[in-house]
Amino acid sequence: MRLTSEDVRTLACPVCRGGLRFEGDLSRGQRLENGFLDCVRCGRVWPLRHGLAALLDEKTVRGPDRWLQPIYDFIAPTHDLGVLLALPLMQFPDPGASRRRYMEPIDLKGLRARREGPPVRVLEVGIGSGGNLPLIERDLPSALEVEIWGLDLSPRMLRECERRLKWYARRPVRLLLGDAHRLPFPDDSFDRVFNVGGINGYRDPATALAEMARVARPGTPIVVVDEHLDPNRLNLPHHYLAFWGLTWFDPYPEPPIKHLPKGASHVEVRRVSRFYYCLTFRMPGATHDDQQGGSTMPKGDGNLDSEGLKAIRGAYDNRQMTQVLRSGFEDPYPATTAWLDALGKAFDSELADEGDVGRTRFSPQDRERCIIAILTGRGGGLTLAIHIYMAIALGVEVEEIKQILCLTGLYTGVDNFAAGLRTLQTTVELLEYLAQKRTLRPMQVVATLLEKFGD
Hints:
alpha/beta; Rossmann fold; 3 domains; 11 strands
């Protein structure tokens, strides 16, 4: 399915993770027809090819990915037939099909609708020709509205997947040309993430796994399936030959446990057939920097001392903040006039053209409602981080913000509550670091928050 103008809000530049904006022609139903996507932060342009968004820089495709891409393009028309007929013969006498055995840990049946916030989303990295779509449809609750996204490095595989969708899919499937090492999505975008038959051939499995963990919502199962000859079975000569034929590009294929992101939990490896394993893990409360092996900024204790607070409040300029929000955040940040006016009323009074800025403090209840509104909006990480900074600069104590987020949990659920506390912790740590550096003008602070939370 071709993307719609609304779908663009779910995407991010694969280079800098800035927001994307569509320039071009729309067909009926607001679907993207001809044109390009450009990044509002770094200015990169990503073309549409026959309605398919190509969020992929060919120059960065290296190693096994470079020469496996044309191979998959070549075998795309016959790939599904080979999996359906040849693979069971190669694994004989292994009973049953491996496809059905790895769907259980993905746990699509366990998905539930949210009361508020973004829709439920499922991502298959390396969707290929769409061979898993029938099983996805089978396992998803019938009444649940779900966005299914698929990404692949092979243009021809995606064309085969589009053909399948024309006669099979009951739900819309959003397809993208992209690289698993640079997923074009913001952090915490998907409720399920899985990859089948690709990780062994990736040039950098650790980066690909970290990217899957980054775009998965905290706590969601991340499932990876690929080749590994079962050492606990009696493997005959034809099994070794057939397995070598599948894995000739990787002399020692095995589950990539050593490449899992730092902090991965609930790690489990199960067999799904003689030739295939299924690796499952979760990233509870992980941030992108945790997955990459440590932040580039020193982490504080999550508390600002009096000197740090004094520095933040002394450097804060509300006029500059309003200018920053109005001028540079139209797309990645919901900076409509109405939105900014509502936030302005929640945190301070209307700005005067000249003279000192007078402020009317709102009650904790009003600030609570404001932060709830921020949390439930799209792109909540960056939005919440900016307004935590604004609240601290305008006199709201960190402990009070924690209490507000606690109350928010009662309204918006555990996931948003936990995400809010992580955002608060990271924002305060960044402010501690900036207070030491004395780089606390709003433009500098927002640039730092954009680097950390930008989506």
